[in-house]
Amino acid sequence: MSKLILTRLDNSDELAKQFVAFEKRNPQLGVHVGFRRDCGSTMMRVAQPVVVDSGELKEFVFDGAIANYPNPDVEEDNVNYLDGIREIGVRCEYTDGRDRPRLRVSSIDFEGPFYETWPPASHSNIFIESDHKGDPPVYAREIIRAFATRAYRRPITQAEEATLVKIWKESFSNGGDLRQSIKDVILVILTSPQFLFLIESSETPKPEPLDSHELASKLSYFLWNAAPDSKTLALADRGQLAKSLDSEIERMIKDPRFEQFTSEFGSQWLSLDKFDVVEIDRKRYPKLTRDAKVELRKEPVRFLEHLIRHDLPLRNLVQSDFIVANEVVANYYGLGDRTESGFKFVAIKHDNQNLGGVLSQASILSGLSDGREANPVKRGAWVARKIVAEPPEPPPPNVPELDEDTKHLSLRERLERHRNQPGCAKCHSGIDPWGVPFEAFDAGGLFKNDKKVDARSTLPDKTEVASVNELKQYFARKRIDQVAFSFMKHLTAYAIGRDLTYNEIEFLKEKSVELKAQEYRMQDMIRFVVKSPMFLEK
Q1: CB within 8 A of 392, min separation 6: which ones?
Q2: I want to staple 100 with a disulfide (CB 3.0 to 4.6 A). Which of 25, 256, 264, 466 is the partner?
Q3: Are 222 and 261 contacting, i.e. CB atoms less than 8 angstroms apart?
Q4: Buried b (16+ CB within 10 A) or exposed e, 39-76
Q5: What are the φ/ψ torsions at residue 40 (nearest 5 degrees)?
Q6: 218 domain residue, yes or no
Q7: In a domain, 232, yes or no
Q8: Residue 17 maps to a domain
Q9: What CA–CA distance (Å, rounded) separates 34 from 84?
Q10: Is 106 helix (H, G, I), strand (E, B) or coil?
Q11: Rounded average pLDDT over 141-149
Q12: Confidence of residue 89 (pLDDT cuts 50, 70, 90)
């Protein structure tokens, strides 16, 4: 070859666009720890993958306790020298399958055991600093008082302190070991009702206001699923928590621990456990891989978190012009070119009328299927229970299954035949109208794009819709009050840990509409629940 001519591609050229997009993508560095088995490897991710956004060498640190990862159980006489070997994997994480720059790892260092301070915080949080360390009875009393106050989430009473100190003295007198005797007392504290339950002591059978420390615990376990921190407890100690609820709620929502609320409440309310257990036919739905399923399971939780943290109107819950997704989820919906966020969930604008809101999220719709075919009845019952709070009555125990010879009939014909059976019509009149539009989504939770699907439905109030998109508009415009009531009903039940009474339900129906003027803002509804008598009284 005597000469090589390179010609720059025009920026409008499709190949040039591919190279530009490739350069913008950043690889995700992940670390996994596990061990090798005879039939393969068992690995677990260490922390979250990090974005490598530069070609320059950088140092990345992944912290994890080795006890939290699969641990080999090696048999001395096992001749398979590979079995039981611990494995550590460093790799460029797979996201949505698109090409991206490769990683170059220069070196890997291991450090451990690693403690920022010595003794570690786990020790010093129990064996606190004191001028009385040389006086075991006095020092033990200080440790017990401090630990029990944290465990009980309130100052301990004199009687409780006396009982715990007595236990310590009996243990200490048997061996004179301060640490062991403190362990014995801690065991008693951590198995006591005061630690395991939210104790609300009442003086009379009538409703009474929570005291400041009861309110602190109830609020913290509601929004953080964890014990109150020092700031909340300080307000409770001063008796100022009830007057500071607005600022405390705002602070708690901004805190990373709020993710525990969206994860627990979102999973329970939306019945995401159904997606965890459904067996998907991988031949029919090859896109719904194990990795895709893991990320799709997070979508409703991250969506709910986004709505609350940005204090958006409730209508976005049922109809929104954006989804909250990472690269894996976006690619599953055919929007892979809209984001370069890796595993991080971000809001992505879309113009697809079949996306947006919880009603068209794949994890929910797939969980309400049998893994092979869509199930509009399950989806309709879910809408009735979760979105409009009009749950159907349990079916009679003797209702027969659908005949196998009805598979050649259309969905509408099969539902009609089932409704005509004795005992079926009443329940299905409150289920089927909500579920028929969802026939347009397959068992993988994606829109079928099949013109043969008849998604028309006459809703219980005689409104006619022809698609899930029209059903979303119906909820967002015509039934938003009912959607708000349903959301707050589920939210209140989660907050107080029990079902609502008839009077409490009527209170919600009457008072919740006061939030309509502000479009049912998500944080307003949380504040409404916290300031309601159901939450503030015991």
Answers
A1: 381, 384, 385, 427, 428, 430, 431
A2: 25
A3: yes
A4: eeebbebbeebbebeeeeeeeeebeeeeeebbeeeeee
A5: 140, -155
A6: no
A7: no
A8: no
A9: 10
A10: coil
A11: 97
A12: confident
If asked whether residues 72 and 155 sit together in one domain, one would say no
Burial class (CB in 10 A: 0-12, 13-18, 19+), 210: buried
| Residues 448-452, mean pLDDT to the nearest whole number | 84
3-state DSSP: the chain helix, strand, coil percent, rounded to 5? Answer: 50, 10, 45
| Cis preceding linkage at 193, omega within 30 | no
d(CA 413, CA 419): 10
User: What is the pLDDT, as a whole number, of residue 322?
Assistant: 97
Structural domain boundaries, residue 133: 121-196
Contact 61, 46 (CB under 8 A): no
Residues in the chain: 538
Q: What is the pLDDT of residues 57-72, one digit of tens each?
A: 999 999 888 888 887 7
3-state secondary structure 442-453: CCCCCECCCCCC
Co-location of 277 and 389 in the same domain = yes
- Give the highest mean pLDDT range of 119-133, 177-191, 423-437: 177-191
- Where residue 292 falls among pLDDT bands split at 50, 70, 90? very high
Identity of residue 192: S
Label the pairing between strands 86-92 and 28-37.
antiparallel
Element (H, E) at 457: strand 457-458
Quick one: 469 and 494 in the same domain?
Answer: no
Amino acid at 270: L
**Are residues 313 and 375 located together in one domain of the fold?**
yes
pLDDT over 90 (residue 414): no
* pLDDT number for residue 424: 58
Beta bridge partners of 50: 29
Q: What is the pLDDT of residue 164?
A: 98
Alpha carbons 460 and 478: distance in angstroms, whole number? 13
Number of independent structural domains in the chain = 4
Average pLDDT value over all residues in the chain: 90
